[in-house]
Amino acid sequence: MSAKVRLYVEHPLGQGQSVPLERDQAHYLFGVMRLAVGARVALFNGQDGEWQAEVAEAGKRGGVLVCVDQSRPLQMPPDLWLLFAPIKKARTDFIVEKAAEMGAARIVPVQTEFTNSDRIRQDRLQAHAVEAAEQCGGTYVPEVTELTKLGRLLDAWPAGRQLMFCDEAEVGSALQLAQTERGLPWAILIGPEGGFSDRERTRLAALPSSHVVSLGPRILRADTAAVAAMTIWQKALGDWG
Amino acid sequence: MSAKVRLYVEHPLGQGQSVPLERDQAHYLFGVMRLAVGARVALFNGQDGEWQAEVAEAGKRGGVLVCVDQSRPLQMPPDLWLLFAPIKKARTDFIVEKAAEMGAARIVPVQTEFTNSDRIRQDRLQAHAVEAAEQCGGTYVPEVTELTKLGRLLDAWPAGRQLMFCDEAEVGSALQLAQTERGLPWAILIGPEGGFSDRERTRLAALPSSHVVSLGPRILRADTAAVAAMTIWQKALGDWG
Protein backbone atom coordinates (compact mmCIF):
# COMPACT_ATOMS: atom_id res chain seq x y z
CA MET A 1 0.00 0.00 0.00
CA SER A 2 1.24 3.44 -0.93
CA ALA A 3 1.64 6.14 1.76
CA LYS A 4 -0.92 8.95 2.00
CA VAL A 5 1.50 11.40 3.64
CA ARG A 6 4.25 12.93 1.47
CA LEU A 7 7.13 14.74 3.07
CA TYR A 8 10.04 16.72 1.68
CA VAL A 9 13.28 16.07 3.57
CA GLU A 10 16.77 17.44 3.20
CA HIS A 11 18.49 14.09 3.57
CA PRO A 12 19.80 11.43 1.17
CA LEU A 13 17.28 8.70 0.33
CA GLY A 14 18.12 5.12 -0.67
CA GLN A 15 17.53 1.46 0.16
CA GLY A 16 17.64 0.96 3.97
CA GLN A 17 18.62 4.60 4.52
CA SER A 18 17.65 6.04 7.95
CA VAL A 19 16.17 9.53 7.86
CA PRO A 20 16.09 11.46 11.13
CA LEU A 21 13.16 13.85 11.53
CA GLU A 22 13.23 17.43 12.64
CA ARG A 23 11.00 18.56 15.45
CA ASP A 24 8.25 20.10 13.27
CA GLN A 25 8.21 17.08 10.97
CA ALA A 26 7.84 14.76 13.99
CA HIS A 27 5.03 16.97 15.29
CA TYR A 28 3.25 16.78 11.92
CA LEU A 29 3.62 13.01 11.47
CA PHE A 30 3.00 11.85 15.03
CA GLY A 31 1.00 14.71 16.58
CA VAL A 32 -1.18 15.87 13.67
CA MET A 33 -1.36 12.80 11.41
CA ARG A 34 -1.17 10.36 14.36
CA LEU A 35 1.19 7.93 12.64
CA ALA A 36 2.69 5.14 14.76
CA VAL A 37 5.78 2.93 14.40
CA GLY A 38 5.41 0.81 11.27
CA ALA A 39 3.31 3.40 9.36
CA ARG A 40 4.26 4.35 5.79
CA VAL A 41 5.33 7.83 4.64
CA ALA A 42 6.40 8.91 1.14
CA LEU A 43 9.64 10.92 1.11
CA PHE A 44 11.37 12.98 -1.56
CA ASN A 45 14.36 15.29 -1.43
CA GLY A 46 14.44 16.78 -4.92
CA GLN A 47 17.26 14.44 -5.98
CA ASP A 48 16.60 10.76 -5.27
CA GLY A 49 12.98 10.37 -6.46
CA GLU A 50 10.16 9.28 -4.15
CA TRP A 51 10.73 6.61 -1.50
CA GLN A 52 8.29 4.71 0.67
CA ALA A 53 9.61 4.84 4.20
CA GLU A 54 8.51 3.21 7.44
CA VAL A 55 8.34 4.87 10.83
CA ALA A 56 11.06 3.20 12.95
CA GLU A 57 11.01 5.58 15.93
CA ALA A 58 8.29 8.08 16.84
CA GLY A 59 8.76 10.72 19.52
CA LYS A 60 7.45 14.14 20.44
CA ARG A 61 10.61 15.93 19.39
CA GLY A 62 11.91 13.68 16.68
CA GLY A 63 11.85 10.27 15.10
CA VAL A 64 13.45 8.09 12.47
CA LEU A 65 12.11 6.83 9.16
CA VAL A 66 13.72 4.01 7.19
CA CYS A 67 13.49 3.91 3.39
CA VAL A 68 11.91 0.67 2.13
CA ASP A 69 11.71 1.06 -1.63
CA GLN A 70 11.66 3.68 -4.35
CA SER A 71 8.09 4.38 -5.53
CA ARG A 72 8.99 6.89 -8.26
CA PRO A 73 12.17 8.01 -9.95
CA LEU A 74 13.24 11.66 -9.88
CA GLN A 75 11.28 13.60 -12.49
CA MET A 76 12.95 16.90 -13.27
CA PRO A 77 10.65 19.61 -14.62
CA PRO A 78 11.54 21.22 -17.96
CA ASP A 79 14.12 24.04 -17.74
CA LEU A 80 11.52 26.77 -17.25
CA TRP A 81 11.85 29.78 -14.98
CA LEU A 82 8.82 31.73 -13.82
CA LEU A 83 9.54 35.45 -13.36
CA PHE A 84 6.86 37.55 -11.68
CA ALA A 85 6.49 40.89 -9.92
CA PRO A 86 5.37 40.31 -6.32
CA ILE A 87 1.96 41.72 -5.46
CA LYS A 88 -0.19 41.47 -2.36
CA LYS A 89 0.97 38.79 0.07
CA ALA A 90 -1.79 36.24 -0.50
CA ARG A 91 -1.50 36.43 -4.29
CA THR A 92 2.29 36.22 -4.19
CA ASP A 93 1.96 33.03 -2.13
CA PHE A 94 -0.50 31.72 -4.70
CA ILE A 95 1.82 32.43 -7.62
CA VAL A 96 4.63 30.49 -5.96
CA GLU A 97 2.29 27.60 -5.16
CA LYS A 98 0.94 27.56 -8.73
CA ALA A 99 4.41 27.77 -10.29
CA ALA A 100 5.51 24.72 -8.29
CA GLU A 101 2.36 22.76 -9.22
CA MET A 102 2.66 23.73 -12.88
CA GLY A 103 6.26 22.53 -13.02
CA ALA A 104 8.56 25.54 -12.96
CA ALA A 105 12.19 24.65 -12.33
CA ARG A 106 12.96 28.03 -10.77
CA ILE A 107 10.82 30.87 -9.41
CA VAL A 108 12.24 34.37 -9.69
CA PRO A 109 10.50 37.35 -8.02
CA VAL A 110 11.39 40.48 -10.01
CA GLN A 111 11.15 44.14 -9.15
CA THR A 112 9.84 46.21 -12.06
CA GLU A 113 9.41 49.97 -12.34
CA PHE A 114 5.73 49.69 -11.40
CA THR A 115 6.18 47.04 -8.68
CA ASN A 116 5.23 48.26 -5.23
CA SER A 117 7.02 45.75 -3.06
CA ASP A 118 10.73 46.17 -2.50
CA ARG A 119 11.20 43.06 -0.39
CA ILE A 120 9.86 39.54 -0.10
CA ARG A 121 10.09 36.85 2.54
CA GLN A 122 12.17 34.47 0.48
CA ASP A 123 12.16 31.74 3.16
CA ARG A 124 8.36 31.83 3.45
CA LEU A 125 7.93 31.64 -0.33
CA GLN A 126 10.36 28.71 -0.48
CA ALA A 127 8.28 26.94 2.17
CA HIS A 128 5.19 27.44 -0.03
CA ALA A 129 7.03 25.84 -2.95
CA VAL A 130 7.94 22.84 -0.74
CA GLU A 131 4.34 22.46 0.41
CA ALA A 132 3.04 22.65 -3.16
CA ALA A 133 5.54 19.96 -4.23
CA GLU A 134 4.40 17.74 -1.34
CA GLN A 135 0.76 18.21 -2.42
CA CYS A 136 1.11 17.81 -6.16
CA GLY A 137 3.11 14.61 -6.11
CA GLY A 138 6.22 16.18 -7.62
CA THR A 139 9.65 14.80 -6.82
CA TYR A 140 11.38 18.16 -7.36
CA VAL A 141 11.13 21.48 -5.50
CA PRO A 142 11.76 24.67 -7.50
CA GLU A 143 14.14 27.16 -5.94
CA VAL A 144 12.64 30.56 -5.09
CA THR A 145 15.35 33.15 -5.61
CA GLU A 146 15.81 36.52 -3.94
CA LEU A 147 13.94 39.55 -5.33
CA THR A 148 15.93 40.82 -8.32
CA LYS A 149 15.57 44.04 -10.32
CA LEU A 150 14.23 43.28 -13.80
CA GLY A 151 16.83 45.57 -15.39
CA ARG A 152 19.68 43.77 -13.67
CA LEU A 153 18.26 40.40 -14.70
CA LEU A 154 18.04 41.50 -18.35
CA ASP A 155 21.60 42.92 -18.25
CA ALA A 156 22.87 39.43 -17.43
CA TRP A 157 20.29 37.49 -19.44
CA PRO A 158 21.70 34.02 -20.26
CA ALA A 159 22.43 33.62 -23.97
CA GLY A 160 19.97 31.21 -25.54
CA ARG A 161 17.34 31.30 -22.78
CA GLN A 162 14.05 32.13 -24.49
CA LEU A 163 11.72 34.61 -22.79
CA MET A 164 7.93 34.42 -23.08
CA PHE A 165 6.64 37.77 -22.05
CA CYS A 166 2.98 38.33 -21.34
CA ASP A 167 1.88 41.87 -21.95
CA GLU A 168 -1.63 43.22 -21.51
CA ALA A 169 -0.87 45.83 -24.14
CA GLU A 170 -0.41 43.04 -26.67
CA VAL A 171 -3.99 41.79 -26.79
CA GLY A 172 -4.49 39.90 -30.01
CA SER A 173 -0.99 38.86 -31.01
CA ALA A 174 -0.63 35.26 -32.06
CA LEU A 175 1.38 32.64 -30.30
CA GLN A 176 3.76 30.54 -32.36
CA LEU A 177 5.58 28.80 -29.55
CA ALA A 178 5.15 25.40 -31.06
CA GLN A 179 7.38 26.43 -33.97
CA THR A 180 10.35 27.25 -31.73
CA GLU A 181 12.95 24.64 -31.06
CA ARG A 182 12.21 22.12 -28.32
CA GLY A 183 14.66 21.55 -25.48
CA LEU A 184 15.82 25.17 -25.16
CA PRO A 185 15.89 26.81 -21.73
CA TRP A 186 12.95 29.18 -21.24
CA ALA A 187 11.55 31.77 -18.88
CA ILE A 188 8.03 33.19 -18.59
CA LEU A 189 7.70 36.76 -17.36
CA ILE A 190 4.37 37.84 -15.86
CA GLY A 191 3.98 41.60 -15.75
CA PRO A 192 3.07 43.57 -12.63
CA GLU A 193 -0.58 44.58 -12.13
CA GLY A 194 0.33 48.14 -13.12
CA GLY A 195 1.83 46.89 -16.40
CA PHE A 196 5.37 47.37 -17.66
CA SER A 197 6.86 50.82 -18.16
CA ASP A 198 7.51 51.92 -21.75
CA ARG A 199 11.25 51.56 -21.14
CA GLU A 200 10.81 48.00 -19.89
CA ARG A 201 8.53 47.13 -22.78
CA THR A 202 11.05 48.41 -25.33
CA ARG A 203 13.87 46.57 -23.63
CA LEU A 204 11.94 43.30 -23.48
CA ALA A 205 10.88 43.54 -27.10
CA ALA A 206 14.50 44.18 -28.14
CA LEU A 207 15.77 41.03 -26.46
CA PRO A 208 16.63 38.65 -29.34
CA SER A 209 15.10 35.66 -27.58
CA SER A 210 11.82 37.29 -26.49
CA HIS A 211 8.38 36.07 -27.55
CA VAL A 212 5.38 38.27 -26.79
CA VAL A 213 2.17 36.35 -26.18
CA SER A 214 -1.42 37.28 -25.56
CA LEU A 215 -3.59 35.70 -22.90
CA GLY A 216 -6.95 36.47 -24.48
CA PRO A 217 -9.28 39.47 -24.58
CA ARG A 218 -9.82 39.87 -20.83
CA ILE A 219 -7.22 41.29 -18.45
CA LEU A 220 -6.00 38.53 -16.16
CA ARG A 221 -4.77 39.02 -12.63
CA ALA A 222 -1.11 38.11 -12.19
CA ASP A 223 -1.83 34.78 -10.50
CA THR A 224 -4.32 33.75 -13.20
CA ALA A 225 -1.89 34.88 -15.91
CA ALA A 226 0.90 32.79 -14.38
CA VAL A 227 -1.16 29.58 -14.57
CA ALA A 228 -2.50 30.38 -18.07
CA ALA A 229 0.96 31.19 -19.46
CA MET A 230 2.51 28.08 -17.96
CA THR A 231 -0.33 25.95 -19.35
CA ILE A 232 0.29 27.27 -22.85
CA TRP A 233 4.02 26.67 -22.52
CA GLN A 234 3.71 23.19 -20.99
CA LYS A 235 1.29 22.10 -23.72
CA ALA A 236 3.46 23.46 -26.53
CA LEU A 237 6.98 22.75 -25.29
CA GLY A 238 6.94 21.19 -21.84
CA ASP A 239 6.12 17.89 -20.18
CA TRP A 240 2.34 17.88 -20.70
CA GLY A 241 2.87 15.97 -23.92
CA MET B 1 -9.85 60.14 -21.15
CA SER B 2 -11.11 56.71 -20.21
CA ALA B 3 -12.40 56.05 -16.68
CA LYS B 4 -10.23 54.14 -14.21
CA VAL B 5 -13.18 52.93 -12.14
CA ARG B 6 -15.38 50.20 -13.62
CA LEU B 7 -18.74 49.43 -12.10
CA TYR B 8 -21.35 46.76 -12.78
CA VAL B 9 -24.91 48.11 -12.54
CA GLU B 10 -28.29 46.46 -12.91
CA HIS B 11 -29.76 49.23 -15.04
CA PRO B 12 -30.18 49.88 -18.78
CA LEU B 13 -27.31 51.83 -20.36
CA GLY B 14 -27.55 54.06 -23.42
CA GLN B 15 -26.90 57.56 -24.75
CA GLY B 16 -27.95 60.14 -22.13
CA GLN B 17 -29.32 57.45 -19.83
CA SER B 18 -29.41 58.36 -16.11
CA VAL B 19 -28.26 55.62 -13.77
CA PRO B 20 -29.21 55.93 -10.09
CA LEU B 21 -26.68 54.50 -7.66
CA GLU B 22 -27.33 52.23 -4.73
CA ARG B 23 -26.03 53.14 -1.32
CA ASP B 24 -22.95 50.87 -1.39
CA GLN B 25 -22.06 52.00 -4.91
CA ALA B 26 -22.28 55.65 -3.82
CA HIS B 27 -20.11 54.86 -0.82
CA TYR B 28 -17.51 53.20 -3.07
CA LEU B 29 -17.42 55.96 -5.70
CA PHE B 30 -17.66 59.01 -3.47
CA GLY B 31 -16.39 57.77 -0.09
CA VAL B 32 -13.63 55.34 -1.09
CA MET B 33 -12.60 56.54 -4.57
CA ARG B 34 -13.33 60.21 -3.75
CA LEU B 35 -14.94 60.97 -7.10
CA ALA B 36 -16.70 64.32 -7.49
CA VAL B 37 -19.40 65.62 -9.85
CA GLY B 38 -18.03 65.53 -13.41
CA ALA B 39 -15.74 62.54 -12.83
CA ARG B 40 -15.83 59.64 -15.27
CA VAL B 41 -16.82 56.06 -14.43
CA ALA B 42 -17.05 53.08 -16.78
CA LEU B 43 -20.33 51.16 -16.49
CA PHE B 44 -21.48 47.79 -17.80
CA ASN B 45 -24.59 45.74 -17.12
CA GLY B 46 -23.86 42.51 -18.97
CA GLN B 47 -26.12 43.52 -21.88
CA ASP B 48 -25.35 46.96 -23.32
CA GLY B 49 -21.54 46.92 -23.53
CA GLU B 50 -19.33 49.37 -21.64
CA TRP B 51 -20.35 53.02 -21.27
CA GLN B 52 -18.40 56.03 -20.09
CA ALA B 53 -20.59 57.87 -17.62
CA GLU B 54 -20.25 61.14 -15.79
CA VAL B 55 -21.10 61.76 -12.14
CA ALA B 56 -24.13 64.13 -12.18
CA GLU B 57 -25.06 63.94 -8.49
CA ALA B 58 -22.89 62.69 -5.64
CA GLY B 59 -24.24 62.04 -2.15
CA LYS B 60 -23.51 59.90 0.86
CA ARG B 61 -26.43 57.60 0.30
CA GLY B 62 -26.84 57.77 -3.43
CA GLY B 63 -26.03 59.58 -6.63
CA VAL B 64 -26.70 59.68 -10.34
CA LEU B 65 -24.45 58.88 -13.28
CA VAL B 66 -25.26 59.90 -16.86
CA CYS B 67 -24.04 57.79 -19.80
CA VAL B 68 -21.93 59.82 -22.25
CA ASP B 69 -20.77 57.32 -24.86
CA GLN B 70 -20.23 53.66 -25.41
CA SER B 71 -16.58 52.72 -25.03
CA ARG B 72 -16.93 49.03 -25.90
CA PRO B 73 -19.66 46.87 -27.38
CA LEU B 74 -20.99 43.88 -25.47
CA GLN B 75 -18.61 40.97 -25.86
CA MET B 76 -20.30 37.71 -24.97
CA PRO B 77 -17.96 34.93 -23.86
CA PRO B 78 -18.09 31.62 -25.73
CA ASP B 79 -20.86 29.25 -24.57
CA LEU B 80 -18.71 27.55 -21.96
CA TRP B 81 -19.87 26.39 -18.53
CA LEU B 82 -17.42 25.73 -15.72
CA LEU B 83 -18.55 22.96 -13.38
CA PHE B 84 -16.59 22.45 -10.19
CA ALA B 85 -16.97 20.78 -6.79
CA PRO B 86 -16.78 23.45 -4.06
CA ILE B 87 -13.85 23.08 -1.71
CA LYS B 88 -12.55 25.25 1.11
CA LYS B 89 -14.06 28.73 1.14
CA ALA B 90 -11.07 30.72 -0.07
CA ARG B 91 -10.37 28.35 -2.95
CA THR B 92 -14.03 28.26 -3.99
CA ASP B 93 -13.97 32.06 -4.16
CA PHE B 94 -10.83 31.85 -6.28
CA ILE B 95 -12.36 29.38 -8.71
CA VAL B 96 -15.34 31.68 -9.29
CA GLU B 97 -13.05 34.70 -9.75
CA LYS B 98 -10.80 32.75 -12.16
CA ALA B 99 -13.76 31.39 -14.14
CA ALA B 100 -15.08 34.93 -14.67
CA GLU B 101 -11.64 36.24 -15.71
CA MET B 102 -11.06 33.32 -18.04
CA GLY B 103 -14.38 33.88 -19.80
CA ALA B 104 -16.86 31.28 -18.57
CA ALA B 105 -20.46 32.04 -19.55
CA ARG B 106 -21.88 30.17 -16.57
CA ILE B 107 -20.42 28.83 -13.33
CA VAL B 108 -22.01 25.70 -11.88
CA PRO B 109 -21.03 24.42 -8.41
CA VAL B 110 -21.63 20.65 -8.37
CA GLN B 111 -21.93 18.20 -5.53
CA THR B 112 -20.10 14.94 -6.23
CA GLU B 113 -19.94 11.77 -4.15
CA PHE B 114 -16.62 12.85 -2.64
CA THR B 115 -17.53 16.54 -2.19
CA ASN B 116 -17.61 17.61 1.44
CA SER B 117 -19.68 20.76 1.19
CA ASP B 118 -23.43 20.42 0.92
CA ARG B 119 -24.17 24.11 0.62
CA ILE B 120 -22.67 27.27 -0.86
CA ARG B 121 -23.31 30.99 -0.44
CA GLN B 122 -24.61 31.55 -3.95
CA ASP B 123 -25.04 35.32 -3.45
CA ARG B 124 -21.48 35.72 -2.20
CA LEU B 125 -20.07 33.72 -5.12
CA GLN B 126 -22.14 35.80 -7.57
CA ALA B 127 -20.66 38.96 -6.00
CA HIS B 128 -17.16 37.53 -6.62
CA ALA B 129 -18.03 36.98 -10.27
CA VAL B 130 -19.23 40.61 -10.55
CA GLU B 131 -16.03 41.90 -8.94
CA ALA B 132 -13.88 39.78 -11.27
CA ALA B 133 -15.78 41.13 -14.29
CA GLU B 134 -15.22 44.70 -13.06
CA GLN B 135 -11.49 44.00 -12.67
CA CYS B 136 -10.82 42.11 -15.88
CA GLY B 137 -12.49 44.56 -18.23
CA GLY B 138 -15.22 42.15 -19.29
CA THR B 139 -18.62 43.43 -20.37
CA TYR B 140 -20.41 40.26 -19.27
CA VAL B 141 -20.95 38.68 -15.84
CA PRO B 142 -21.31 34.89 -15.69
CA GLU B 143 -24.21 33.57 -13.66
CA VAL B 144 -23.28 31.44 -10.64
CA THR B 145 -25.96 28.79 -10.23
CA GLU B 146 -27.12 26.99 -7.10
CA LEU B 147 -25.24 23.89 -5.94
CA THR B 148 -26.48 20.96 -8.02
CA LYS B 149 -25.88 17.23 -7.61
CA LEU B 150 -23.64 15.94 -10.41
CA GLY B 151 -25.91 12.94 -10.97
CA ARG B 152 -28.95 15.16 -11.43
CA LEU B 153 -27.03 17.41 -13.82
CA LEU B 154 -25.97 14.44 -15.94
CA ASP B 155 -29.53 13.04 -15.94
CA ALA B 156 -30.67 16.22 -17.68
CA TRP B 157 -27.48 16.85 -19.69
CA PRO B 158 -28.35 19.04 -22.71
CA ALA B 159 -28.05 17.17 -25.98
CA GLY B 160 -25.07 18.42 -27.94
CA ARG B 161 -23.26 20.15 -25.08
CA GLN B 162 -19.71 18.79 -25.07
CA LEU B 163 -18.12 17.98 -21.72
CA MET B 164 -14.39 18.28 -21.08
CA PHE B 165 -13.72 16.26 -18.01
CA CYS B 166 -10.42 16.53 -16.18
CA ASP B 167 -9.53 13.39 -14.29
CA GLU B 168 -6.38 12.85 -12.27
CA ALA B 169 -6.66 9.15 -12.97
CA GLU B 170 -6.22 9.92 -16.66
CA VAL B 171 -2.63 11.16 -16.55
CA GLY B 172 -1.11 10.80 -19.97
CA SER B 173 -4.13 10.76 -22.26
CA ALA B 174 -3.92 13.01 -25.27
CA LEU B 175 -6.06 16.04 -25.97
CA GLN B 176 -7.63 16.36 -29.37
CA LEU B 177 -9.97 19.24 -28.68
CA ALA B 178 -8.86 21.13 -31.73
CA GLN B 179 -10.34 18.44 -33.95
CA THR B 180 -13.84 18.84 -32.52
CA GLU B 181 -16.31 21.10 -34.19
CA ARG B 182 -16.11 24.80 -33.34
CA GLY B 183 -19.15 26.70 -32.13
CA LEU B 184 -20.67 23.88 -30.08
CA PRO B 185 -21.76 24.53 -26.50
CA TRP B 186 -19.25 23.16 -24.00
CA ALA B 187 -18.73 22.54 -20.31
CA ILE B 188 -15.55 21.87 -18.36
CA LEU B 189 -15.85 19.72 -15.24
CA ILE B 190 -13.14 19.99 -12.60
CA GLY B 191 -13.12 17.03 -10.22
CA PRO B 192 -13.20 17.32 -6.44
CA GLU B 193 -9.91 17.08 -4.54
CA GLY B 194 -10.85 13.56 -3.46
CA GLY B 195 -11.35 12.55 -7.10
CA PHE B 196 -14.46 11.13 -8.74
CA SER B 197 -16.06 7.91 -7.50
CA ASP B 198 -15.84 4.88 -9.79
CA ARG B 199 -19.55 5.21 -10.48
CA GLU B 200 -19.15 8.86 -11.50
CA ARG B 201 -16.14 8.09 -13.63
CA THR B 202 -18.02 5.35 -15.49
CA ARG B 203 -20.99 7.61 -16.00
CA LEU B 204 -18.92 10.49 -17.29
CA ALA B 205 -16.97 8.28 -19.66
CA ALA B 206 -20.24 6.85 -21.02
CA LEU B 207 -21.63 10.28 -21.89
CA PRO B 208 -21.52 10.47 -25.72
CA SER B 209 -20.23 14.05 -25.69
CA SER B 210 -17.50 13.63 -23.05
CA HIS B 211 -13.82 14.31 -23.68
CA VAL B 212 -11.33 13.19 -21.05
CA VAL B 213 -8.23 15.37 -20.85
CA SER B 214 -5.01 15.30 -18.89
CA LEU B 215 -3.48 18.30 -17.19
CA GLY B 216 0.10 17.07 -17.07
CA PRO B 217 2.13 14.78 -14.83
CA ARG B 218 1.63 16.67 -11.55
CA ILE B 219 -1.62 16.66 -9.57
CA LEU B 220 -3.14 20.14 -9.73
CA ARG B 221 -5.28 21.70 -7.03
CA ALA B 222 -8.83 22.37 -8.18
CA ASP B 223 -8.30 26.13 -8.63
CA THR B 224 -5.12 25.59 -10.65
CA ALA B 225 -6.84 22.90 -12.71
CA ALA B 226 -9.75 25.26 -13.48
CA VAL B 227 -7.44 27.91 -14.96
CA ALA B 228 -5.31 25.35 -16.83
CA ALA B 229 -8.34 23.59 -18.34
CA MET B 230 -9.97 26.87 -19.40
CA THR B 231 -6.68 28.01 -20.97
CA ILE B 232 -6.49 24.85 -23.06
CA TRP B 233 -10.11 25.22 -24.12
CA GLN B 234 -9.91 28.95 -24.89
CA LYS B 235 -6.79 28.44 -27.01
CA ALA B 236 -8.26 25.52 -28.94
CA LEU B 237 -11.90 26.51 -29.32
CA GLY B 238 -12.63 29.79 -27.55
CA ASP B 239 -11.99 33.50 -27.96
CA TRP B 240 -8.21 33.51 -27.41
CA GLY B 241 -7.76 33.11 -31.14
TrEMBL record, chains A, B:
<dbReference type="InterPro" id="IPR029028">
    <property type="entry name" value="Alpha/beta_knot_MTases"/>
</dbReference>
<dbReference type="GO" id="GO:0032259">
    <property type="term" value="P:methylation"/>
</dbReference>
<comment type="similarity">
    <text>Belongs to the RNA methyltransferase RsmE family.</text>
</comment>
<dbReference type="InterPro" id="IPR046886">
    <property type="entry name" value="RsmE_MTase_dom"/>
</dbReference>
<keyword id="KW-0808">Transferase</keyword>
<keyword id="KW-0489">Methyltransferase</keyword>
<protein>
    <recommendedName>
        <fullName>Ribosomal RNA small subunit methyltransferase E</fullName>
        <ecNumber>2.1.1.193</ecNumber>
    </recommendedName>
</protein>
<dbReference type="InterPro" id="IPR029026">
    <property type="entry name" value="tRNA_m1G_MTases_N"/>
</dbReference>
<dbReference type="InterPro" id="IPR006700">
    <property type="entry name" value="RsmE"/>
</dbReference>
<comment type="function">
    <text>Specifically methylates the N3 position of the uracil ring of uridine 1498 (m3U1498) in 16S rRNA. Acts on the fully assembled 30S ribosomal subunit.</text>
</comment>
<keyword id="KW-0698">rRNA processing</keyword>
<feature type="domain" description="Ribosomal RNA small subunit methyltransferase E PUA-like">
    <location>
        <begin position="21"/>
        <end position="62"/>
    </location>
</feature>
<keyword id="KW-0963">Cytoplasm</keyword>
<dbReference type="Pfam" id="PF20260">
    <property type="entry name" value="PUA_4"/>
</dbReference>
<dbReference type="Pfam" id="PF04452">
    <property type="entry name" value="Methyltrans_RNA"/>
</dbReference>
<feature type="domain" description="Ribosomal RNA small subunit methyltransferase E methyltransferase">
    <location>
        <begin position="78"/>
        <end position="234"/>
    </location>
</feature>
<dbReference type="InterPro" id="IPR046887">
    <property type="entry name" value="RsmE_PUA-like"/>
</dbReference>
<keyword id="KW-0949">S-adenosyl-L-methionine</keyword>
<dbReference type="InterPro" id="IPR015947">
    <property type="entry name" value="PUA-like_sf"/>
</dbReference>
<dbReference type="GO" id="GO:0008168">
    <property type="term" value="F:methyltransferase activity"/>
</dbReference>
